[in-house]
Amino acid sequence: MATKMTHTAFPAAASMVFFFLVLPSTVLADDPQIPDDAIQLASWFNDVIQSHNLRRTTLDPVLVKAEERVKIIKVSKGGGGNFNKVMAAVDSVPAGNTQRVIIWIGGGVYEEKIKIDRSKPFITFYGSPDDMPMLSFDGTAAKFGTVDSATLIVESDYFMAVNIIVINSSPRPEGRRNGGQAVAVRVSGDKAAFYNCKLVGFQDTLCDDRGRHFFHGCYIEGTVDFIFGSGKSLYLSTELHAKGAGGEFSVITAQARKLESEDNGYSFVHCRVSGSGSNTYLGRAWMSRPRVVFSYTNMSTVVHPLGWSDNFHPERDSLVFYGEYKCMGPGANTSKRAKFAKMLDDDGVRPFVTLNYIEASKWLLPPPRLVPRGKRYELVYSKWMMTRYSVQNNILV
Predict the structure, then answer these.
(1) Membrane spanning segments where (predicted)?
(2) pTM of the predicted model, to two decimals?
């Protein structure tokens, strides 16, 4: 696990109906390259990432079995649900869980610290896209240590979050002392997916700690190292919002790869870098061999011309893997980039612009949509929904 310091009235869950919209069956391609045209993303994703009952031969057998029996638990602040606290719903899931449990979180602000330990895989946090719930807590490194300061800690495998806002509400660190780091989400389990989620904080917003992870149509906001850790993750159509001010220094990634043998890194594809100020770095070499690639990404003037920092360790210049490919916008001008940055060609970028980067054929599923039908629910996987996510991401502010 990464350790980091820095200088500066719903029915009972058993009463459910499950409905799956049948889509044409296809097999995930051997090399499912992400299209270079963003307009094609929604239809492409629908074609390659289909529901579990259409991909039984390629998905992990334990995942297929878990998806065959789905339990839905409702959390509601105003009453009428199974619980009024998110952590109470998590506590109700037994250790050694083997079925998909969807915790449907109603709208509102839930001020609580939430942890899903490794004994509880196959949990989904689900919110309505029209009334997204907010999970909020004010933990800091001074109180809990950096990685345990998170509002939401996910240590289990096969986690999914859909339409959820997670905030660390601690104040912005002053920069003159250690302990102000405050994580919104730490994900340490393997095979986790986040769809249409907003993660908000200042320093160290997202601890992408370890395991394979997928972020689609998300919004991640912070100041210094606001995505950090040793995960192997693919970020697709996600906005990265740097909250700099004037000449204030800010950094998006502090990827923690240390050894050449480590198989981890971050790949950002069809993303957007926004924010304030003009002194934001795409990454800094917190550890000796970070691996980060930006492809087809729109970069605003918030990005510093150098793009990347060796973190005052010039001996790491020959060890880092910081790559860019066909990015756009004023911040993507590479004429003044750091000399150790790599301008990748078609062959060099190929491993980073494919779902194979995170072995998606074995575990990645489309997000569900829950539809209330009187006293019952319908669980739907649909093409319409994925198109909606794509459109929603384009209007994030």
Answers:
(1) none
(2) 0.90
DSSP assignments along 212-280, one per residue: EEEEES-EEEESSS-EEES-EEEEES-EEEEE--TT--EEEEEE---STT---EEEEES-EEEEESS-E
Structure tokens at 350: 């190929």
CA distance 204 to 182: 6
Four-residue CA torsion sign, 264, 267, 272, 276: positive
- Indicate which residue of 157, 204, 225, 310 is catalytic: 225
Which stretch of DSSP H or E encloses residue 167? strand 165-168
- Contact in structure between 170 and 187 (CB atoms under 8 Å): no
Contact 237, 258 (CB under 8 A): no
Q: Which domains does the chain show, CATH number per domain? A: 38-48+114-120+128-365+384-394 (2.160.20.10)
pLDDT tens figures, 299-356: 999 999 999 999 999 999 999 999 999 999 999 999 999 999 999 999 999 999 999 9
